[in-house]
Design a protein that fits this description.
32% of the residues lie in helices and 32% in strands.
């Protein structure tokens, strides 16, 4: 696995990238809301050599709240994050994993990985919600 769980205080150094992302989904408070959730243990922060992910467990799914990669190696890098996030969501007991995005580039990868899409809206911005049912792990 490339993603390592880190303490919430390490999230601060990603402020600029997360705030840039927050403007694409009309969510200017995203960084602060994520930071609060991390501090209250309602979300979990992961970092790798090339990026970050924040996973938020919910009642019916786990939300990949933020996933940012500075590695521009194409879909192979992105797909490895999908596998890791799916695994982490399974370990957390989530029956499904969701990504909410405005990016059109997710379509081919998500469809190939078995995700279903649904058009939605977040704070007045059209988004696509991608969801994949997960097999629950028994330990």
């Amino acid at each position: 696995m490339n993603l390592k769980r880190l303490a919430p205080c390490r999230f601060e150094r990603w402020r600029e990238e997360v705030e840039r992302l927050s403007h694409t989904v009309n969510d200017p408070d995203m960084f602060d809301r994520i930071k609060e959730a991390l501090l209250n243990r309602r979300a979990f922060f992961f970092e790798s050599e090339h990026g970050i992910a924040v996973l938020k467990p919910c009642a019916t799914h786990a939300l990949a709240w933020v996933a940012i990669s500075s590695n521009h190696c194409g879909r192979i890098g992105l797909e490895s994050y999908f596998s890791e996030l799916e695994f982490l969501a399974q370990v957390a007991g989530s029956p499904a994993l969701q990504f909410w995005t405005t990016r059109k580039g997710f379509t081919r990868i998500c469809q190939r990985r078995g995700y279903q899409s649904c058009a939605s809206e977040w704070r007045g911005t059209p988004i696509t919600v991608w969801e994949k049912p997960l097999c629950l792990m028994t330990l």
